[in-house]
Amino acid sequence: EDQVTQSPEALRLQEGESSSLNCSYTVSGLRGLFWYRQDPGKGPEFLFTLYSAGEEKEKERLKATLTKKESFLHITAPKPEDSATYLCAVQADDYKLSFGAGTTVTVRA
Amino acid sequence: GAVVSQHPSRVICKSGTSVKIECRSLDFQATTMFWYRQFPKQSLMLMATSNEGSKATYEQGVEKDKFLINHASLTLSTLTVTSAHPEDSSFYICSANVRGGPYEQYFGPGTRLTVT
Q1: Could you tell me if B89 lies within 8 Å of chain A, comparing CB atoms?
Q2: Most confident of A74-83, B28-37, B43-52
């Protein structure tokens, strides 16, 4: 059974204080690892897909990396508008997504 | 691009009634659509997978007679919660894969269902 574990559960940052979120996974036949951002009461917003170990992707203050066992989402110099829950999901050969529980990030001005 | 809409965004219904939720891909054709539910402070749980013109595949523990899914076209899927009860109150979210595209799932904004 596919398993996705995210840590920490919650993260409180001061504006400008960089940090990283972790997503560790076990999956048979990884097709892709996905990062989403979810705001309260909204659907997840697609951020990145990573397909193979060593791959990195960036978008504004966010950078995602992937190894064979885990992925990191680095937030550089965060702003209050980066406050959200960040979800990690793995996709196996059946194209279904298995989600982690998420990391709720709060950035204080 | 890759915009998914849901309607309604919020619905309140009485126990025993049925509620239909629509999910549309606005600017692309969807190979597959997925339905999730999310409880407060929990992650998304996949309920079912549907392909256009075929029967939906339900995850273990999801009652197919209670959660009816119809995927009538490459841009529309509907979820009907039949004989709703208070325990069906939840946040329902759909997603879609781009037909012929990469494997990312694009999510709708969600529907908040409250059963009284």
Answers
A1: no
A2: A74-83
